[in-house]
């Protein structure tokens, strides 16, 4: 049966790019799902065929991403005989075909698609209480009062189970987001810059005048492990650990609960420090992200988790891709001296058992050195900075990150088009060339003329060679362009976080500028003013250290990815040349 | 000033091929004339840009192809002060801009464009008298009676001049065709199979029952150089000369006459036999073609002259292309043992002086062994053939040539599309990739971070490399695809001639089948019947010899062109690989 899809947003084809213009609500027939690069080939009602962005459409009658889920008979949907099942259906990561039909595309999927800000992190934004205080852990007993069936498992429930109820207490929308991400993430065009989800009034007592919380706080909290900043060749730098932490994300395993009604993927993370693997679900990564964002977001851009950027809707491909991106995210976190050294990150990588994990979670969620207060833990070795220099530096970083963001997006756009051409029209053309040569060979064979075979064999071989080239061309993007795109996608995400981080600094600069006025108005004392610019200078050292960290990583990453890309490109062209040389050898004018 | 063009025929763009749909009469702006392959890039009134076949449009305000022609002041058009000039204007190969404007696109060009059957040879079809008898040479004095000004030059006129009047006596349409071909031939899509212009009632006394002229002729004309057919390994073959004739067509020179009002291109043809160059204008090639067609057309397919297949409307390119194709045509004629040995062909290659040429022309035009009568000169060494075998052979050849014709057209279509992609979207894309990398490099340079330069230099180099690749891609088709297309174009033309030749044989076969009936009806004697099938068998030997000649040439030609094509393709991919390897070397993760 032809796979139908519904168009979610208008999409206008770019001329000459083999794209198909579609209108919201239109139904199209998917003719090729495995184009890759976030594109599918589809045919509209007028029979026109072309490429459409995967994230602009919604598949109809799609089978659930989780076979496990499909074990629930379709007839269960809203079937009174199974009251509790239907309760879970409302939260089920993927609904069964029957439900899809019933909901006429109003299932959680489309809701998720339609949400442009998208991504797991939103459920936090949507219930700030979750982060207002570090105490978002609900009282399990609360579940009973809400009569949630699962509550009857009581305290015996293992931590994950218990997490689930807690999640399920959230708005189903928020839930749908977080789980649908895990169930079959949709490529979000990869073109929207993701950004950190911090907002100036998201932190404890953090208001528009947020930075003053730190700038004016009476005493720097004690007994914290301090974060030192040294002045190196390139300027202020973080103090890097002796041994670079890294970890391997691997071996995704499917787990299921509630009699197979809910399933999830568990990844195995093995740090090079302990070499002892720990298991985490996507939602645990998400929890880690939130902690890091709260704690370091004002000083260090924390890239969003891979989620909306995931390509491919089919489990195998999806899990592989997500794992690859979680690996990339974890490696980046490991490479950061401050993050990799933090308690919460260490907990994530090295917790001994469920109890250890649970306690650590509690502790992390109670941590009050979050938001701008992180600066209280920073100790620059160098002298104070001139506020003017501080401002200039801040401006420079702001300009650079913006410019790089634009440039990275340009590469992604061009790469995306190249991907389409290499997987669409180009191989088709080589195939047709190959076929034409083989057809000619067939005709020649019918000539009945002597000594025909040398030519016809050679022609057939040449034709087959061009069919092989078609294959090579179509497969190449996955071998090289893929990594170039992934790296730039990662940087797009990272760069999207800088405005928030830099915003905190700009707010602090403005506050310090008001210093004299505030003194005159007796709002602050002269000591306060001195303290403020001293602390602003600490913030600037932090930003500079962070930028230098960013630059050194960037230089390494782009050298590596370009090497990788060009190496594969060379192999690609050499392979083709070799194949053609072989084909050439078969012809003879002797 | 933007070059405007008028659309002559509706053209519907093929989706995904970067083509532009245009309607007859529409005016478009040409944005790129040098696409090649018979295509131009144009923009329509709605601002859409795409490729349009060159032969579907007519350029406006185009400069005359011949600078010489433009020496006639535009104001001359229809200027009463220059009556004779305006007379010639009507016949002028190219009209001046002023004339184009005056005629609002109704100049000879568009008339010529609009003629689908096209080509120089048509003017013969349009006045059969020209060929009814071999005596198409007009009486020069006739010109006087028609009061043609040039006639007053009388007999003193050099032969070429005199030729012109003779030409000009034809319908101006016919004239426009034959000269416009010489002036700036238009690519006729290269996709219509050209065919010989013989028709069954084109030869002396040749009617629907044409072959009987030979089948029943009372006596085989004497004193002719006989054409022998031997039976070789592959079957009946022509007797080939000891030394293969060949010639070089080179050194096109512009000549002009009538005070520079009319100019022409003269080519130098040097046969390897005499090594003495002779000069010929296109019209002389055309004359030769007509002679060969009349004399050998029933037995040997005579490919049309390169004319309608010429690509490119600009003099330099056009002359180069026509010379290349005249060379191809001449080489093919030289390779044919019967044609290369014929008096008329020898005359063309080796005439000593104008007088010699003139006499030879007269003689050739008086030759009466034309049409089916050519078979009277053929002597097969072998025994007579069973009529059934004759018919089967004929069927087989008919099938094969039809099948090859289809296959060759498929290659031309695919090649044409490939040409477009390689000269259009593909290089644009590589260019954009190159630019994107260089832009990123520029941004990085602005980071102010130490040790940036290694990466930025490498990125810039990589970017430039992709711009070079864009260039290579765009130029490649001229280096390899061009020859593949030319060879197949030539074969398309040749194959288009077989139906006529084979038709003559089929008519003969039918006639012989009627043998008994005719005897019974006392229309022919029993000896006649015997003679008929004897002569049919001679015709069959001829056809088989011709097919074997065709096969051996075909095998050689396709081996050669495929070798050439693949060799260039290998070079192409190796060059790219080498460039990329160099770019790769500049990145470092040390």
UniProtKB/TrEMBL annotation, chains A, B:
Residues 245-355 form the PX domain. Residues 157-167 have a biased composition (Acidic residues). Keywords: Cytoplasmic vesicle, Membrane, Protein transport, SH3 domain, Transport. It is a peripheral membrane protein. GO terms for molecular function: phosphatidylinositol binding. Residues 1-62 form the SH3 domain. One of its GO terms (cellular component) is cytoplasmic vesicle membrane. This is Sorting nexin. It comes from Poecilia latipinna (sailfin molly).
């Amino acid at each position: 049966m032809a796979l139908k899809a519904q168009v979610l947003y208008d999409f206008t084809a770019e001329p000459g790019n083999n794209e198909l213009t579609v209108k919201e609500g239109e139904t199209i027939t998917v003719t090729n799902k495995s184009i890759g690069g976030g594109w599918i080939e589809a045919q509209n009602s007028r029979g026109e065929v072309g490429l459409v962005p995967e994230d602009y459409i919604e598949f109809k009658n799609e089978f659930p991403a989780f076979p496990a889920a499909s074990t629930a008979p379709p007839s269960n949907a809203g079937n009174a005989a199974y009251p509790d099942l239907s309760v879970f259906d409302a939260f089920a990561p993927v609904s069964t075909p029957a439900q899809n039909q019933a909901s006429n595309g109003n299932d959680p999927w489309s809701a998720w698609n339609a949400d442009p800000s998208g991504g797991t992190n939103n459920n936090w934004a949507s219930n700030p209480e979750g982060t207002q205080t570090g105490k978002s852990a609900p009282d399990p007993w609360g579940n009973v009062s809400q009569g949630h069936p699962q509550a009857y498992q009581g305290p015996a429930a293992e931590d994950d189970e218990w997490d689930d109820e807690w999640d399920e207490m959230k708005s189903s929308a928020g839930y749908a987001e977080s789980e649908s991400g895990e169930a079959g993430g949709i490529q979000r065009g990869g073109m929207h810059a993701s950004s950190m989800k911090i907002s100036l009034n998201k932190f404890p007592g953090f208001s528009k005048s947020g930075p003053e919380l730190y700038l004016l706080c009476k005493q720097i909290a004690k007994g914290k492990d301090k974060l030192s900043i040294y002045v190196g060749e390139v300027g202020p730098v973080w103090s890097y650990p002796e041994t670079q932490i890294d970890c391997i994300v691997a071996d995704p395993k499917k787990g299921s609960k509630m009699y197979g009604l809910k399933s999830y993927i568990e990844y195995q993370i093995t740090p090079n420090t302990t070499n002892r693997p720990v298991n985490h679900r996507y939602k645990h990564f998400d929890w880690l992200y939130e902690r890091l964002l709260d704690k370091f977001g004002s000083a260090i851009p924390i890239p969003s988790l891979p989620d909306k950027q995931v390509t491919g809707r089919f489990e195998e491909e999806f899990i592989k891709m997500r794992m690859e991106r979680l690996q990339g995210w974890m490696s980046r976190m490991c490479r950061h001296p401050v993050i990799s050294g933090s308690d919460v990150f260490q907990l994530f990588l090295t917790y001994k058992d469920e109890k250890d994990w649970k306690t650590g979670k509690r502790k992390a969620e109670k941590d009050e050195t979050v938001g701008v207060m992180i600066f209280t833990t920073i100790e620059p070795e160098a002298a104070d900075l001139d506020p003017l220099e501080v401002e200039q530096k801040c401006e420079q970083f702001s300009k650079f990150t913006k410019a790089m963001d634009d440039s990275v997006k340009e590469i992604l756009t061009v790469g995306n088009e190249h991907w389409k051409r290499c997987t669409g029209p180009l191989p088709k053309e080589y195939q047709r060339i190959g076929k034409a040569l083989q057809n000619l060979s067939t005709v020649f064979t019918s000539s009945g003329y002597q000594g025909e075979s040398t030519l016809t064999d050679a022609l057939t071989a040449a034709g087959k060679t061009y069919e092989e080239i078609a294959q090579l061309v179509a497969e190449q993007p996955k071998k090289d362009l893929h990594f170039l795109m992934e790296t730039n996608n990662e940087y797009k995400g990272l760069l999207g976080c800088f405005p928030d981080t830099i915003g905190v600094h700009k707010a602090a600069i403005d506050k310090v500028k008001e210093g004299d006025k505030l003194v005159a108005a007796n709002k602050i004392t002269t000591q306060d003013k001195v303290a403020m610019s001293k602390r602003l200078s600490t913030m600037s050292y932090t930003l500079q250290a962070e930028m230098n960290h960013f630059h050194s990583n960037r230089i390494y990453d782009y050298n590596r990815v370009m090497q990788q890309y060009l190496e594969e490109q060379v192999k690609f062209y050499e392979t083709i040349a070799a194949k053609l040389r072989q084909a050439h050898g078969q012809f003879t004018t002797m």
